[in-house]
Write a structure and sequence with these properties.
The protein is α/β, with parallel strands linked by helices and 502 residues long. The chain has helices at 73-79, 127-131, 144-148, 158-173, 191-199, 225-239, 245-248, 253-267, 270-273, 295-300, 319-322, 333-343, 351-355, 363-388, 419-422, 426-431, 446-462, 492-501, and strands at 8-11, 14-17, 19-21, 24-31, 54-56, 90-95, 103-109, 135-139, 179-189, 211-215, 308-314, 396-401, 477-480, 486-487. α6 (225-239) crosses α8 (253-267) and α12 (333-343) packs parallel to α14.
Length: 502
C-alpha cells in the first residue's frame, strides 16, 4: 500500500489524488470523457479536457440524469446515485496498491434498464474486490435518451460507446494503479449484463478486455433499426419535439426525465407495445454499424472466441417485474394473452415446469418461470452454446443463482438478488433496505457470499472460477445456493420446450 493516506496517480488528462478507505486506495469521479451535453450532445464520447495541478478524487462525480422509479428512498439509495449532472462520464477505482503491478482488473457496468443507476451507488462498492487483490473500476455511461435512443446516422449505441471509451481509459492508465492491462474482466448485471453481451459483439471493443461475466443479461434486447426508429418516433411525440439530434439537443433535464418516466410506464403495458413490453425498457442497443450483429451470431462467427466467458442468471428473474402489478397473485387475462404470445407458448406447454422443477406451482409461478427462461436463462444458455462451440481458446462457464429470499418468499431468487453475494456486501445490503422489504432476511448466508465472491475473483485472476467448463454436450453449470453444486445438462427439460417454441 502506498505510504500516504492521499495517494496520487497520473491519468491521460492529469493527476488525481484519492483517499485510503478500509485499507485500499480509492479514486472517485475521474472523467474519462468530456461532459456529453451542449455541443457534445449526441456525439460519440469526446476526450476530457486536461487539467493543471492535482485533481481531487475523494468524492464521487455526478451520474447521468435520471429519475428513480423506486418509491422507497432507502432501497433507492442502494442502487442509485445521490448526485446527477451533465459532467457524468466518470469512473471510480479501488486498488489494493497503486504502486503494485500485474493485478487483475475488473470493470463493472451497472444495471437499471438503461434508465437508472450509477457506478457510484452503494451496491457497486469495490472494497471487497480490492481487498482480495483486484483493481476494480465502476463506470457511468449515458442512458435512456442520450445513450440508447436511435436518432439515425451515427447517433446510435452512444451508451455502449461510452463504455468502450472507459475501457480505453483502463488500457491507457492501468499500469499507474497497479493493474495489468492484459488481464481485464468486464462484468455487469441486468442492463450491465446486456452491455457486456453487446460489447462482446462490438468491433470497437475488441482487444480491450480478456474475460467477461454477463449477469442476468438478455440477447433478446437488441433492436432492429426499424423498431428503434419506431421507439424514437414515440419518444418524439412524448417530448413534443422532432426525434432528431437538433430537435432534442436543448431538451432540459426536467423535461427529459418527465418524458422518460412517461415512456417507461407506457412501455411496460402490452396494450400499447404488445409483445415488446416484455423486454421492460424502450431504451436498448440497436443493430448498427457500431454493433453489426447480435452477440450469438458474432460469437458463432468466432468473434472474441479467445475471451473467457462466464454467464448466468437467477432462478426467478421475473418476479421483480410481476410483483409490483399484482401478477404473482392474479394473471389479468389481457396481460396473460400477451405474455403467451410473446413467449410463443400455451399454458398447457408450461405444465412442463410442474412435471420437473416446480411441482404444484400455481399458474402465476409458471408464467414467471416462462418469462425468466424466455428473457434470461434461455438467452444465457444460447450465449454459452455459441461461445463454447466457436473453437477458440476462451473458456466457457455457466452458473445459476438459486438461493431464495427467506423473508419475501414470493420473490424467490429474484433479479439482482445475487449482487450482495458477488460483492461480499450482505451487511451493506441489509443496512440499505427497509426491514419489511429486505429479501435477505436477518441472517443471510455469509458462506454463500464467500463462495460466489471468490469464484468471481478467481475467474478474473485466472480464467477459472473453480468448476468444470461448459460445453454443449454436458452443459455443466454451477448452482449457487446453500446446498447447491454442479449440475449437468442445465435446464434440460425446459430447454426442450423453448427449442420447440422457436
Amino acid at each position: 500500500m502506498a505510504s500516504t493516506d492521499r495517494p496520487e496517480v497520473a491519468t491521460t488528462a492529469g493527476r488525481v489524488r484519492g483517499v485510503v478507505s478500509d485499507g485500499v486506495a480509492v479514486f472517485k469521479g475521474i472523467p474519462f470523457a468530456a461532459p456529453p451535453f451542449g455541443a457534445n450532445r449526441f456525439l460519440p464520447p469526446q476526450r476530457p479536457a486536461r487539467w493543471d495541478g492535482v485533481r481531487d478524487a475523494s468524492q464521487f462525480g455526478s451520474a447521468y440524469p435520471q429519475k428513480s422509479l423506486d418509491p422507497d428512498p432507502l432501497r433507492n439509495g442502494y442502487f442509485n446515485p445521490t448526485e446527477i449532472g451533465e459532467d457524468c462520464l466518470n469512473l471510480n477505482v479501488w486498488t489494493p496498491d497503486p504502486g503494485a503491478s500485474g493485478l487483475p482488473v475488473m470493470v463493472w457496468i451497472h444495471g437499471g434498464g438503461y434508465m437508472t443507476g450509477a457506478g457510484s451507488a452503494v451496491a457497486h462498492d469495490g472494497t471487497a474486490f480490492a481487498r482480495d487483490g483486484v483493481v476494480y473500476v465502476s463506470v457511468n455511461y449515458r442512458m435512456h435518451v442520450d445513450g440508447f435512443l436511435y436518432l439515425g446516422g451515427d447517433v446510435a449505441n452512444l451508451g455502449l460507446r461510452d463504455q468502450v471509451a472507459a475501457l480505453e481509459w483502463v488500457r491507457d492508465i492501468f499500469v499507474n494503479v497497479g493493474g495489468d492491462p492484459d488481464n481485464v474482466t468486464i462484468f455487469g448485471q441486468s442492463a450491465g449484463g446486456v452491455s457486456v453481451m453487446h460489447l462482446l459483439a462490438m468491433p470497437a471493443a475488441r482487444g480491450l478486455f480478456h474475460r467477461a461475466i454477463p449477469q442476468s443479461g438478455s440477447t433478446r434486447v437488441l433492436a432492429s433499426a426499424e423498431l428503434a426508429t419506431r421507439i424514437a418516433a414515440r419518444a418524439g411525440e412524448l417530448f413534443d419535439r422532432p426525434p432528431t439530434p437538433d430537435g432534442l439537443r436543448d431538451l432540459d433535464v426536467d423535461a427529459l426525465l418527465a418524458g422518460v418516466v412517461m415512456f417507461a410506464f407506457e412501455y411496460i403495458s402490452p396494450a400499447f407495445w404488445g409483445t415488446e413490453s416484455f423486454l421492460i425498457s424502450p431504451f436498448r442497443p440497436v443493430q448498427h454499424e457500431t454493433l453489426p450483429a447480435d452477440v450469438v451470431t458474432a460469437l458463432r462467427g468466432g468473434m472474441n472466441s479467445d475471451v473467457d466467458l462466464m454467464a448466468g442468471c437467477t432462478r426467478d428473474e421475473a418476479t421483480f417485474a410481476m410483483q409490483p402489478f399484482g401478477l404473482l397473485d392474479h394473471l389479468e387475462p389481457t396481460w396473460l394473452a400477451a405474455a403467451l404470445e410473446a413467449f410463443g407458448v400455451t399454458m398447457q406447454d408450461l405444465d412442463v415446469y410442474r412435471r420437473t422443477t416446480r411441482a404444484d406451482a400455481a399458474d402465476p409461478e409458471l408464467l414467471m418461470a416462462a418469462w425468466t427462461d424466455w428473457a434470461f436463462r434461455g438467452p444465457a444458455i444460447d450465449l454459452l452454446d455459441a461461445h463454447a462451440s466457436a473453437g477458440g481458446t476462451g473458456r466457457t462457464y455457466g452458473y445459476e443463482f438459486t438461493w431464495a429470499s427467506p423473508s419475501l418468499p414470493f420473490m424467490g431468487s429474484a433479479h439482482a438478488l445475487e449482487l450482495p453475494f458477488v460483492f461480499d456486501g450482505l451487511t451493506t445490503f441489509v443496512k440499505n433496505h427497509p426491514e419489511h422489504e429486505n429479501p435477505l432476511g436477518d441472517s443471510p448466508p455469509q458462506e454463500l457470499a464467500d463462495r460466489m465472491h471468490k469464484a468471481w475473483v478467481d475467474f478474473a485472476t485466472t480464467g477459472d472460477p473453480g468448476w468444470p467448463a461448459y460445453d454443449s454436450a454436458t452443459r455443466s453449470a454451477m448452482q449457487f445456493d446453500t446446498t447447491g453444486g454442479l449440475v449437468d445438462d442445465w435446464a434440460a427439460t425446459e430447454r426442450d420446450l423453448w427449442i420447440a417454441a422457436r
